[in-house]
Each structure stands twice: as C-alpha cells, then as structure tokens.
Amino acid sequence: MSKFYLRYFGLMFLLAACSETEEALDLGLDYQPLALGNFWEYQVEETIYFGEADIETNNFYLKDRVASDYINEVGEQVFLLVREKSSDRQSWQPESTYTYRVSDGALIKSSQNQVSVSLVFPPLEGKVWDAHIFGVNGEDNYRLEMLQNYAVGGTEFTQAAKVIQHEEDDLIILRDKRYEVFAKEVGLVESYYELLSYCSRNDCLGQQIVESGRFTHLKLIDNG
Fold first, then answer.
1. For 80-104, what is the mean pLDDT?
2. In the structure, what pLDDT confidence band is assigned to residue 52 with cuts at 50, 70 and 90?
3. How far apart are CA 93 and CA 83, in angstroms?
4. Which residue ranges make up each domain of the chain?
5. Residue 63, pLDDT above cutoff 80
6. How crowded is residue 3: how many other Cβ atoms within 10 Å of its Cβ?
7. Residue 114: what pLDDT?
8. How many alpha carbons lie under 13 Å from residue 203 in its C-beta half-sphere?
9. Residue of 6, 27, 33 whose CA lies nearest to 121
10. Measured at the alpha carbon of residue 175, what is the angle toward residues 173 and 177, in degrees to the nearest 5?
11. pLDDT bucket at 8, cuts 50 / 70 / 90
12. 103 - beta bridge partners?
C-alpha cells in the first residue's frame, strides 16, 4: 500500500476519533468519565440509627476504580468498577462491585441486582426522569440542577450536575434527603444519603427523635 493511502486512512481514523470525542463532549458524557484505570477516592461519614439510644458512627474511605470493560449482548460497552474500603488510606479491602454503561442518553448503574439511571445526557437544568424505569418497584423520578462554583472537600468545581433523588421531610414521621453531584471532567464528587424514621409515639410525636435509619455522606478527595 502506498504512503498516500496509509496517510489517507490514518487521517480518516483520526477524524473519526475526533468526531466521537466531540460528540461525547457535546452530550456531556464527561460528567462521568469512564475509562480503564480511572479512580475516585472518597471520605465517608456514616451514622446508623438502630434505635432511639442506639447509634453507630463511622468515618472511613472508599475508592472506586474502573477495573475492566466488556461489550454486552446488544453491543454496549460496560465498565466494571471495583469499590474498596479503608480506615487509613493505606490498607484497602474489597467492598463491592458495580457496573456503568451509557445507553440511549442515560448513565445506567447496576449494583446488587438493582438497575437505576444515575444521570441523563446531555445534563440540562430541570430535566426529570424515572430512575427506576428498569425496575419493578414503581416510578421514582430524579431531577437535575445545574450548578456553578460548587465546592466539595475544599475543591471548587466550575460546572456540576446535582441529581436530586429525594427531598422530603415532614418533621413528624420521615426525613428522606438524597442527592448525587457529578462534576464536569471529573465524575461523581458527592453522594448524600439521609433516610430517617422519627419516633411516632404519642409521647414523642413531632419531636424529630430518630428511631431508625442511616446517614451516609461521600465527598471526593482524590481522583485520576
């Protein structure tokens, strides 16, 4: 094959690769970059309420890493992420695994036999979607807020997408506040989970005494 044709095909390949990259950026796929070796490390504060006077609080670290990928039966690229846990950022122990894939403009997460839509592309202010469209437990709508100059753990991100999962507190029986924040060119930078049941007996109704539940707050401290 002549040098001309080698250069021609090389140029066509480069243009195709650039086109795919530009399309991904236009869609906002860089709000959760996925590539082999990518990692995210989080500082975690967690409190578990077993009863009114039975509380357990822990502080630890989690690290998520893209360990491998494969093509599924419908031709989609699936990324396997391994989660590890540590108390000192030195010694890490396996915690769990989950997968991400992008399909029809949605970031789909599969974890512990649960499938949910974590984010939609392109991320736009006010967009709403059914996160559990693949499940059997009924509709669960998430909503997007687009943020600027959002700070997490001392780091400020100029473009971020906040996924409001649940936002409820009746001050009497239940508090359910959950959200995740994805930063452009970084990925998931914060995850907030607070699901509490208040005491509803006559002697404590409306006093917001936590009877059971869990609070877990992840904040990004390193990535690469």
1. 97
2. confident
3. 9
4. 30-223
5. yes
6. 7
7. 92
8. 0
9. 27
10. 165
11. very low
12. 106
Give 153-206 pLDDT, tens digit per residue: 889 999 999 999 999 999 899 999 999 999 999 999 999 999 999 988 888 887
**Residue 106: closest CA among 90, 118, 96, 124:** 118
Which two tokens mark 144? Answer: 């997007």
Where are the alpha helices (H) located in 34-138, listed in sequence order?
none
pLDDT in tens, 100-125: 999 999 999 999 989 999 999 999 99
Helix (H) or strand (E) holding 146: strand 141-147
The tokens describing 163, both together, are: 């996924």
What is the CB neighbour count within 10 angstroms for residue 62?
18
Peptide bond into 122 cis (omega under 30): yes
Secondary structure class of 156 (helix, strand, coil)? strand
CA 137/CA 124 separation, integer angstroms: 26
User: Strand, helix or coil at 129?
Assistant: strand
Distances (CA, A) of 17 to 14, 29, 67, 106, 186: 5, 15, 23, 22, 21
> What span, in angstroms and rounded, lies between the C-alpha atoms of 82 and 141?
27
